[in-house]
Amino acid sequence: DAGVTQSPTHLIKTRGQQVTLRCSPKSGHDTVSWYQQALGQGPQFIFQYYEEEERQRGNFPDRFSGHQFPNYSSELNVNALLLGDSALYLCASSAKGQDYGYTFGSGTRLTVV
Amino acid sequence: QKEVEQDPGPLSVPEGAIVSLNCTYSNSAFQYFMWYRQYSRKGPELLMYTYSSGNKEDGRFTAQVDKSSKYISLFIRDSQPSDSATYLCAMQRGGRGAQKLVFGQGTRLTINP
């Protein structure tokens, strides 16, 4: 049973560019959340998607946007990249009615130069 | 002030030692308390969870929650080199639907053979 799959694993972008990260949730899961983990820090919540709509959002600017598709997979888009956006971006999935213990993917390491 | 505080370490102990990891928090609304383990270049993996106050034991791991003190702990008995990882505490409000996780900074633990 495949867990949460994220692509790409690594990415290098130039300041000002735009990036799209992808996530396929664990089989049977329908809710996807995205987290940003800076080096040496804990993950920080970006937003959550359920039924193709953004349900919750953390303290991130509008440059961060997302999408969820009918098959529950999700994309995270970041526009006008800043050096400070360099981080590990984690996707977590959960099932409807699951209150805790989300399953995380291995993340996408984004480096902005 | 951060909602969740965790000493980042690093913490280095000999194999077989008892390890104590701790977090404090400020938000009384937190109902679910979790410990995640994160190996290098991997996503967080759920290790233990506790609902509300109390203790929970799973093999060599024991999680404790003291809501009156807003303090949670993870104890690792008979520590092994394979336990070397970053340990993240995470907390979550109660309520319907998947709530966002609020993480501590993570404690980097090394078990020396």
H/E order of the elements of chain A?
A: EEEEEEEEEEE
Structural class designation of chain A: mainly beta
Q: What does the largest sheet of chain A look like?
A: 7 strands, mixed
User: Topology as H/E string of chain B?
Assistant: EEEEEEEEEEE
* Most extensive chain interface and residues per partner: A-B, 29 and 28 residues
Radius of gyration of chain A, Cα only, in angstroms?
A: 13 Å
Tally the helices of chain A: 0
Output the number of helix runs of chain B.
0
- Given the C-alpha coordinates, what overall shape of chain A results? globular
Biggest pleated-sheet summary of chain B: 6 strands, mixed
Instruction: Provide the low-confidence segments of chain A as ranges.
Output: none
Distance between the termini of chain A: 37 Å
Regarding quaternary structure, what we see is heterodimer
Low-confidence stretches of chain B: none
Task: List how many beta strands of chain A DSSP finds.
Answer: 11
The average pLDDT of chain B is: 93
> Could you tell me the radius of gyration of chain B in angstroms?
14 Å
Mean pLDDT of chain A: 94
In terms of DSSP E residues, the strand content of chain A is: over 45%
Work out the number of β strands of chain B. 11
Q: What fraction of the residues of chain B are assigned to beta strands by DSSP?
A: over 45%
